[in-house]
Each structure stands twice: as structure tokens, then as C-alpha cells.
């Protein structure tokens, strides 16, 4: 395993169909690869973003038939890069449940999917500005945490709202994750208030690099997302960040030895103790 890793985070404003989603993200991935990225990460909802139920159902495909997933597998093989599709919205494959899966896909340089993760925590909320989200109505939650293997060590997989559950990130770190991906489509109100603070906290707590590619701007279905993709080091420092909502590419070179240094300096991952919680 090498001590350095060149990564790129892709920030998008994904359209409402998978074919359009692929056309939107492909040139950004090509740019990232041409500029030297070895591992490229895209946001939540890379294939399409559509919350209007009838249109969402019309855009939904099985993972193996989704135009964006198929195109991204071929693109990774063509470019010879590792590609984390932050998530694709695909049919869950559960016969008695019509809801979709919100699924991260790790693709190796041969174009093979080497790891899958279905979002564990779904976003059901009524925001102060009047926006209402019921992700549980359309997305089937996953059942298992996942650490994907890579040439640079374990990559813990999370998606968006998972960011608010620190025990998940801690479990990923203790299971071998040196990098943690947080692809997202954060709402503007919550993103402005909490996005950077939560990402830095998860990095500090785990002593891991946190890689957070985001959606940004106003989408075809009317939702507004925060953008501001960023990379956080294991000491909690912001290594690279976009300061806008526009589609783009964010590069960073990671010194992977920083993980061991941070965890040696604050060895909290080894200091868990059982405790009683009086009722």
C-alpha cells in the first residue's frame, strides 16, 4: 500500500433521468482522471434525482440495467481508475417491497463492482422552512455497514443522512476504514448549518480521512442542495473544499500516514468501555 493517494470529488447537479445523469457526470469524471486522480468519488443520487413519485418510478431501473451504472462501469474500465458511485437510485431487488435502494457502488479499474452499500438511515423530516422529506416512503433502508477494500486501505461507505450517526463511522473505523466516504445531497438549510461541522467531527472521532462529494444547486424536481464538497484530514483539518454549488472537480493528495499519526495521538478507538445508563 502506497503512502499517498490522489483523489477527486465530483460535485454535480444531477438531472432527473439516468441517461441525462450519465451525460452530466461523465465529462467531470474524465477531467478528474486526466488531471491524475486515482480514486474518483461522486455524490448521492449520481444516476438521477427525482422526488416526484410518478417520474421517479418511471426513471427507476434494476442496478444491472441502469444506463448510468452501466456507463460508469465502462468509464472506470476505459480510464483505468477506481470509481465510487456515491449512490445510484435503483430497484432494491426485494420482491415484496416496491421501494428503491439508495446504493453506493465501488467500481475497480476493470469495471467490476467490488462493493455495494445500501443507505442505512433514511431522511424523514419537516424542516423549519416548510420543506418536508419522507425518504422512507420511497427508499428501503439497508441492513449492513460496509468497508470496501482498495489499494489504499479500507474505505468506509456511508450516504448523506448517515453523517448524523457517529456510531456508524466509529464502527467503520474500528473495522479497518482509513477513508470514509460521505456522498450527499444535503438540503440547503441543514447543509449551511451543519455540513462542514459534522464532517470535521466525524474525521476527528475516527482519525480517518472523510471524503464528501456533494450535489449542489436547484434541481429539476425543485429541491435545493448545498454543495460545498470537501475533504477532511484525520486531525479534523479541511484539506480541500469547493466554496459554491456549481458542478466541478475537487482534487486532493492524501498522505495516508496521517491516519496512523492521528490515531496514535488520540487513541480513542481503543478506549471504549461498557457502562450503565440509569433509566
UniProtKB/TrEMBL annotation:
MF terms in GO: N-carbamoyl-D-amino acid hydrolase activity
EC number, as in UniProt: 3.5.1.77
UniProt KW keywords: Hydrolase
Ranges where the CN hydrolase domain occurs: 5-256
InterPro entries: C-N_Hydrolase (IPR003010), C-N_Hydrolase_sf (IPR036526), Nit1/2_C-N_Hydrolase (IPR045254), UPF0012_CS (IPR001110)
Tagged with keyword Hydrolase: yes
Family according to the record: Belongs to the carbon-nitrogen hydrolase superfamily. NIT1/NIT2 family.
Protein name (Swiss-Prot/TrEMBL): N-carbamoyl-D-amino acid hydrolase
Upper lineage: Bacteria, Pseudomonadati, Pseudomonadota, Alphaproteobacteria, Caulobacterales
Amino acid at each position: 500500500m502506497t503512502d499517498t493517494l490522489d483523489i477527486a470529488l465530483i460535485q454535480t447537479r444531477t438531472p432527473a433521468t439516468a441517461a441525462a445523469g450519465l451525460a452530466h457526470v461523465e465529462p467531470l469524471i474524465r477531467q478528474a482522471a486526466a488531471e491524475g486522480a486515482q480514486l474518483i468519488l461522486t455524490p448521492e443520487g449520481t444516476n438521477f434525482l427525482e422526488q416526484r413519485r410518478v417520474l421517479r418510478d418511471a426513471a427507476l431501473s434494476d442496478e444491472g440495467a441502469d444506463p448510468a451504472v452501466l456507463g460508469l462501469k465502462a468509464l472506470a474500465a476505459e480510464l483505468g481508475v477506481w470509481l465510487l458511485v456515491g449512490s445510484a437510485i435503483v430497484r432494491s431487488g426485494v420482491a415484496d417491497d416496491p421501494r428503491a435502494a439508495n446504493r453506493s457502488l465501488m467500481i475497480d479499474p476493470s469495471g467490476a463492482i467490488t462493493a455495494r452499500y445500501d443507505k442505512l438511515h433514511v431522511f424523514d423530516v419537516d424542516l423549519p422552512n416548510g420543506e418536508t422529506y419522507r425518504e422512507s416512503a420511497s427508499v428501503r433502508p439497508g441492513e449492513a455497514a460496509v468497508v470496501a477494500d482498495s489499494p489504499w486501505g479500507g474505505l468506509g461507505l456511508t450516504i448523506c443522512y448517515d453523517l448524523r450517526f457517529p456510531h456508524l463511522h466509529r464502527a467503520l473505523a474500528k473495522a479497518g476504514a482509513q477513508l470514509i466516504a460521505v456522498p450527499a445531497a444535503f438540503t440547503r438549510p441543514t447543509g449551511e448549518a451543519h455540513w462542514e461541522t459534522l464532517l470535521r467531527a466525524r474525521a476527528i472521532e475516527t482519525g480517518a480521512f472523510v471524503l464528501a462529494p456533494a450535489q449542489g444547486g436547484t434541481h429539476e424536481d425543485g429541491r435545493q442542495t448545498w454543495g460545498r464538497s470537501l475533504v477532511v484530514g484525520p486531525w479534523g483539518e479541511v484539506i480541500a473544499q469547493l466554496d459554491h454549488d456549481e458542478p466541478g472537480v475537487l482534487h486532493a493528495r492524501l498522505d495516508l500516514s496521517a491516519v496512523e499519526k492521528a490515531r496514535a495521538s488520540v487513541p480513542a478507538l481503543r478506549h471504549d468501555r461498557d457502562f450503565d445508563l440509569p433509566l
